[in-house]
Amino acid sequence: MSDRADVTVIGAGVVGLAIAARLASKNRQIYVLEKNDTFGQETSSRNSEVIHSGIYYPANSLKAKTCVEGNSMMYQLCKEYGVEHGNLTKLVVATCDEEIAQIEELLEKGRVNGTPGLQIISKKEIAAMEPNIEAVAALHCPTTGVVDTHGLMQCLIAIATRNDAHIAYRSEVTEINKDGDGYEVIVNNDGEPFALKTRVVINCGGLHSDKVSACAGIDIAKAGYGLHYCKGEYFSVGNGKNKLVSRLIYPVPPAKTTGLGVHVTMTLDGRMRLGPSVEYVDTVEYSVDVGKKQMFYDSAKTFLPFVDYDDLEPEMAGMRPKLQGPGQEYRDFVIKDEADIGLPGLINLIGIESPGLTASPAIAKYVENLVSPYL
Ligand SMILES: Cc1cc2nc3c(=O)[nH]c(=O)nc-3n(C[C@H](O)[C@H](O)[C@H](O)COP(=O)(O)OP(=O)(O)OC[C@H]3O[C@@H](n4cnc5c(N)ncnc54)[C@H](O)[C@@H]3O)c2cc1C
């Protein structure tokens, strides 16, 4: 490992890897430093793998812009490099007349955000598409799909390393010190301290990105970077019921929560799952509480009449790195060059929750614009 880099990316999740793949070039030294034994061991491997269409986010927010742009970039990338994916499409269902106004609101939001092809469809059209679900109307999102996240990350690594980027595992960043024009990054490399001098540092530390920014001396409380952990649990639906729907089916998002409602996602191998739930927690751990089975069943039953209680089995959990705490105002992604606080070329990415997977190629493009003056 050399002790000099042009760009150091902290974190080998989908976002750090997308950035490394975008910035890598033969005449540039790029390091990706990852504390775990391999890539994608945290949020990037514990999510719904949905390529979102961009209907949920406030107009002009980074979430809206990077999701809509990332959606089409993601399909393009998957096609170009043979990453497994499926454009399954999605229905957001209104189960009673009162919910129709909510899907109309989502339609409007999506149109403002530039989501293509959205359409409200009738009960009859729903019956033709998905005969086994119950709804009075639905918002059809034709650009929603599913991607093999592991395959995507492998592909990003291949692009980055083919262009001479290096990925160092078991390499935890513990300090970031300003050093002339750039930074000295102190790394715990498999138990041994190591110093890497770099022009640019890009913090893609996911659940730990607030602490990584504190390693550079940033007061995270003052900057508003403190993260809250928000757990999402999933239950799988067995007994052959997975064959009864072919699209992703979402309820209207419940008022005053930070999730999209317990919904149905399909994996690329045809498994059906319900989730994720929304629960703020104090520590990162990934157990699934079997006691939540009744809540999952009750939520699903309103639009999936064929689901029986005994079809549900606990599956897995993920953890959202959220900037907003319980009951607080909506927060957008933070993607920022910290030049205004005397740390030029330190790029922080904080609160990269959903739709971070979808948005990852567009986030990489956005970050490329931020770092280009330094390279
Ligand atoms: C339940 C759930 C469902 C979701 N569903 C979807 C979905 O369907 N579609 C979608 O678009 N998005 C979804 N998301 C969001 C998406 O998964 C995330 O936005 C995305 O995976 C974030 O990637 P990341 O690279 O920022 O973070 P991560 O994957 O968490 O990677 C961060 C990496 O940084 C490393 N790291 C941290 N600190 C250090 C350090 N000091 N030194 C070295 N390395 C360090 C970590 O070990 C980790 O590997 C979901 C999220 C959750 C939790």
What features would you describe in this structure?
It contains nine helices and 20 strands. With 375 residues, it is of the alpha+beta class. The chain folds into two domains: 4-46 and 150-225 and 330-374, FAD/NAD(P)-binding domain, CATH 3.50.50.60; 90-142 and 228-322, D-Amino Acid Oxidase, subunit A, domain 2 (D-Amino Acid Oxidase, Chain A, domain 2, 2-Layer Sandwich), CATH 3.30.9. The strands form four sheets. Strands 1, 2, 9, 10, 11, 12, 19 and 20 form an eight-stranded mixed β-sheet that branches. Strands 13, 15, 16, 17 and 18 form a five-stranded antiparallel β-sheet that branches. Strands 6-7-5-14 form a four-stranded mixed β-sheet. Strand 11 and strand 12 form a beta hairpin. Helix 1 (14-23) runs parallel beside helix 5 (149-162) and helix 1 packs parallel to helix 9. The longest helix is centred in the first third of the chain and has 20 residues, at 62-81. It is elongated and about 65 Å long. Bound molecules: flavin-adenine dinucleotide. Flavin-adenine dinucleotide (FAD) binds next to helix 1, strand 10, strand 18 and helix 9.
Principal-axes shape call? elongated
Task: Write out the CATH superfamily name of the largest domain.
Answer: FAD/NAD(P)-binding domain
Task: Identify every distinct bound molecule in the structure, by name, code or SMILES.
Answer: flavin-adenine dinucleotide
* Terminal CA distance: 21 Å
**Strand count:** 20
Relative helix content: 25-40%
Q: How many domain modules?
A: 2
Gross CATH architecture of the largest domain: 3-Layer(bba) Sandwich
- Mean pLDDT metric: 95
Query: Main beta sheet: strand number and arrangement?
Result: 8 strands, mixed
Query: Low-confidence parts, pLDDT < 50 over ≥5 residues?
Result: none
